[in-house]
Specification:
Blueprint lengths: L1 H17 L3 E6 L14 E2 L30 E4 L1 E5 L10 E5 L9 E4 L5 E3 L4 E12 L8 E8 L9 E9 L5 E8 L4 E11 L3 E11 L12 H9 L4 E4 L3 H4 L22 E2 L15 E2 L5 H11 L2 E6 L25 H15 L5 H8 L10 E4 L18 H14 L4 E5 L7 H13 L3 E8 L1 H6 L13 E9 L9 H16 L4 E4 L5 E3 L10 E3 L4 E3 L1 H11 L4 E3 L1 E3 L6 E2 L9 E8 L4 E8 L5 E8 L6 E8 L18 E6 L6 E8 L3 E8 L1
Length: about 675
Amino acid sequence: MKKRILAMAVVMGTALSSWAQLTMDVNTKKLGAPIQSTMYGIFFEDINYAADGGLYGELVKNRSFEFPQHLMGWQSFGCVEVKNDGPFERCPHYVVLSDPGHNDRRSGLVNEGYFGIGVKKGEQYRFSVWAKVQRQGAGGKEQAAIRVQLIDENSMDEHQEFVEKKLDITSTAWKKYTITLTSTKTMKHAKLRIFLQGTNSVALEHISLFPVNTYKNRENGMRRDLAQALEDLHPGIFRFPGGCIVEGSSLDERYQWKNSVGPVENRPLNHNRWEYTFDYRYFPDYYQSYGLGFFEFFQLSEDIGAEPLPVISCGLSCQFQNPDPTKPGVHVALDDLGPYIQDALDLVEFANGDVTTKWGRVRADMGHPEPFNLKYLGVGNEQWDYDEAHGGYGPVFTERLKKFSDALRKKYPDLKLIGTTGPNSEGWDFDLLQPRMKELKVDLYDEHYYRDEQWFLTHGLRYDSYDRKGPKVFAGEYACHGKGKKWNHYEAAILEAAHMTGFERNADIVHMTTPAPLFAHVDGWQWRPDQIWYDQTQMFKTVSYYVQQLYATNKGTNVLSLTTPAGKKGVPVAGQEGQNGLFASACYDKAAGEVVIKVVNTSKQAQPITLNLKDLSGATTAKTITLSHKGMDDENSIQRPEFITPKQGTIAVEAGKKQSAINDQLAPMSFRIYRIAK
């Protein structure tokens, strides 16, 4: 028995000695590179029902009957006819409800919403419709009526409807009518029902239902809780509208910003490529109404305090789906790029132009005469060039990018242009494009990487060796995709936190970062992990969301050197050999007068550490924020939205005359931030 205990002690002693206390030296006196205000941001793409059915507040699906199957999302009964000579040129379809000619029959419509219409007890909802009296009965009166209801089809009560109001249609000319409904119950799967009342026929177009309580209380507004979650991230940059939808599976399906501005009733439907991209999670009713368009994107950027970063098509449709750039009609020929380049020039005018300009006037007419102060523009999404071993088609992206760059820089020399290094973080395409971005003198280039745990653990020094004289880096899409478990679990978020120390340490070269994707509907997702999930009435923030929020709200203004003693200057703490899975970075926050240190323990054991705060004296206490959890596969959910959240605390500082120190022990797989007053 004694021998067994002795053997166990030897094993334990060996294990403990292999995790010796790691010392980190923080130079608090010498300020390093400034950290850009755009360092931590958000990227929006309409995937997972992120726009219609998500951030955009509209509750009615196919409100203008423009889906190819014109009544998709609607159940019709009685005498209902779809017509296409309506008042809006680019959305011509509407319905006519007529008297079925029998006392015990009804005509009308029921809309299912996006996986149901979510309403909350006591909340008000604005119903609006463009309507006219289509055909008069024998009395000849220019008046008709509809009954507007919110219904619970599965109700055990006597009545399915729990809200109803009558709406009089008073003219044979098209007019907009509005009424307010107050919900008497909370429901995730309500429906909107409309009955024709009386014998006069009515024409209905652009049938809409919005919460009155949208973000900033705007009529064409955002869902309040989701937009507030974006504001709470304190993002510095807001990239929109995608992503792959910028390119489209074909040129006709690319995102065209000019179709997304102007009166919302006259914005044409666009086919969302995410309807059919993943047939294992197929949603045949996934289209873009453009209700959330470029004006709303710019306005939202302004509301949440982020710099807007629109991305536009460079004339190449999705190269994954269209790998042969010589195929006629798939991509725009170089000599035919003129309209695409003009779209880019017009976009800058829309954002920044005086109200006397054509597109500045459009912006002003939409309610924003002041410019949006656009500073950045991305050209192309995940495009790439080809080398001889991979098609041999040559510089199909960069030759187009140059044409855009020449035209934009000539007219708008202060605009910062963003190129791309394709869909991969390394490999032949990345190696081909990265030096070409420098040759073209773009201001930043956009890197994308969705990688597994091992990649994140072994790439802590990714940016330390980058060329400091070339373009700056925009990590425009990244996420840790667990190997064999691609969801929003805790472990993946901690590894993202570790990777982000490399962003901060290399703030001289990394100027923007945005994880992806941003939103996902729990009933309509196609891609995960994602930052924010929701259903019809509730939402929750993932652990990855909290990691982003912790970095953005503890960003600091300047990098500070943080190294572990090794050699003359020490080395970064980036999960290297002998660092026991630790990643760390430090910065100084001028506004708060505080040193901010971030340390991530990616090992499965507790880690003792010492932080030597050089040239810092007097402080006896540091504030801490800690993200720690034992279940690596656990995640937040609709049922448990705050299951895993950061916790605030304090820790003692051993104050010295020229140097102070913090001795701490980090829990396994945890992320801790220290804030020390200087």
